[in-house]
Specification:
By secondary structure, the chain is mainly β. It is built from no helices and eleven strands. It has strands at 3-7, 10-12, 18-25, 33-39, 46-51, 58-60, 68-73, 78-83, 92-99, 107-110, 114-118. Strand 4 and strand 5 (46-51) form a beta hairpin.
């Protein structure tokens, strides 16, 4: 059973940057496409970004393109989400996910989530 543990969330000011990490265990990390989703209060969970198992392909929601960067380090079984120019609309619980493909990103394993709050 794959386990995903997110870290790096917190409260930041508008315009700040933050890096989320997701450590995976219990499976063959490189065989999974990895992704980040988020859920704001009162809203449905939405896709943020994904990266293919080989790390070559990435995908981003339009709302974060140019501001967020996803990467993976297979030797560390970790996927990262570098977030910059954060704004209040980025507030939410960020979930790490593992799936069999990037297009579409259909998670089969989820982390427990980490809270990101952007507020002045």
């Amino acid at each position: 059973q794959v386990q995903l543990v997110e870290s790096g969330g917190g409260m930041v000011l508008p315009g700040d940057s933050l890096r989320l990490s997701c450590a995976a265990s219990g499976g063959t990390f490189s065989s999974y496409a990895m992704g980040w989703f988020r859920q704001a209060p009162g809203k449905e969970r939405e896709f943020v970004s994904g990266i293919s198992g080989n790390g070559i392909y990435t995908n981003y929601a339009d709302s974060v393109k140019g501001r967020f960067t996803i990467s993976r380090h297979d030797a560390r079984n970790t996927v990262y989400l570098q977030m910059s120019s954060l704004n209040p609309d980025d507030t939410g619980v960020y979930y790490c996910a593992a799936g069999r493909s990037l297009f579409p990103m259909t998670p089969i394993h989820w982390g427990q989530g980490t809270q990101v709050t952007v507020s002045s």
